[in-house]
Amino acid sequence: MALGIGDDAALLNVTPGQQLVMASDTLVAGVHFPETASGRQVATRALCVNLSDMAAMGANPRWFTLALTLPRDKANAEWLADFSAGLGDIAKQQGVALVGGDTTSGPLTLTLTLVGEVPAGEALTRGGAGPGDSVFVTGYLGDGAASLEAITNNKSLHIDSDRLLQRFYSPQPQIQAGLKLRAIASACIDISDGLMADLGHICKASGVTAVIQTEQLPIAAEILELSPLDALEWALCGGDDYQLCFTVAADHLAKVDALIELGELDARRIGTINPGDQSISPVSVIDKNKTLLTVVKPGYNHFGN
């Protein structure tokens, strides 16, 4: 970085041979996080969520900007100090620098723009999946939706609320996984709107379909204990997990298996990519008996009812 905060704009030194990767996300109070969230919780969630897009592209995050719209009741030294501390912790942890932004008055809203780097031609995209590829996901599924349920519907008395609060307010962006998958995955996306919806984006971009096996879905034990039926819905459709869903061609499966066995990649195979077929849903779900399940709401829709 040649020039950071303090002038009209930042000056960034781009590494030779690298392409820039840019992604923006907006988070709105009452939609993406509860109105009662603390300044630290708002900050950590906002930056982690945006970093997840960098992971999905196999990019190394470098810089970010922040446009913060702040209501008057939060425009005080205590809230801002808490917010700044949370933002600084994640930025330091992930090695990214704040290089600009803006602050205005209004309903609590944050827009972050992340800038990263990836070697030219090596970025992961949604469009490379092919028939015969295997579908994988990192980490656990359903944690994000279960944590929101705990926060909004008071189910936290029955589950490990500390773990789920951590998953909701500080979801760990899978940056290292994305870097390892650069030369291995044929397609990749982060799971923000729900597994079925986001895998559906891969299918659409790649002109293929996918089949998911429910018994292969990685769901935490406490989520299953709370409600097996809810757990399956949360894992398939809930969103807010910010794990990676990626596809791997047969000739690269051994590399993925080796990374998993060595403990360098936390991932599990959950399905298969098939040829495109406009007569069926982009993503189908089957249970352990090979029975096709009906999923009414495959994922989050900002403009749905």
Describe this structure in words.
With 305 residues, the protein is α+β, with helices and mostly antiparallel strands. The protein folds into 2 domains: 18-119, 2-Layer Sandwich (60s Ribosomal Protein L30, Chain: A), CATH 3.30.1330.10; 134-292, PurM-like C-terminal domain (Phosphoribosyl-aminoimidazole Synthetase, Chain A, domain 2), CATH 3.90.650. Helices cover 33% and strands 26% of the residues. The protein contains 9 helices and 11 strands. The chain has helices at 39-56, 77-94, 143-153, 161-169, 175-180, 195-206, 221-226, 228-238, 253-261, and strands at residues 18-28, 60-70, 97-105, 109-119, 134-138, 185-190, 208-213, 244-248, 267-275, 283-286, 292-293. The chain has a 7-stranded mixed sheet. The protein has a 4-stranded mixed sheet with strand order 1-4-2-3, with helices on one face. α1 (39-56) runs parallel beside α2. The longest helix has 18 residues, at 39-56. The relative contact order is 0.16.
Q: How widely separated are the two ends? A: 44 Å
Catalogue the unreliable spans: 300-305
Q: Which fold does the CATH topology of the largest domain refer to?
A: Phosphoribosyl-aminoimidazole Synthetase, Chain A, domain 2
* N-to-C order of helices and strands: EHEHEEEHHHEHEHHEHEEE
Report the sheet-strand fraction: 25-35%
Cα shape:
globular
Domain count, please report it: 2
Number of strands: 11
Nearest-integer average pLDDT: 90
Within CATH, the superfamily of the largest domain carries the name PurM-like C-terminal domain
Helical/strand content category = alpha+beta
CATH architecture of the largest domain: Alpha-Beta Complex
Largest sheet: 7 strands, mixed
Total helices: the number is 9
Task: Assign a percent range to the helix content.
Answer: 25-40%
Query: So what's the CATH class of the largest domain?
Result: Alpha Beta
**Computed CA radius of gyration, to the nearest angstrom:** 20 Å
Strand order of the largest sheet: 6-8-5-9-7-10-11
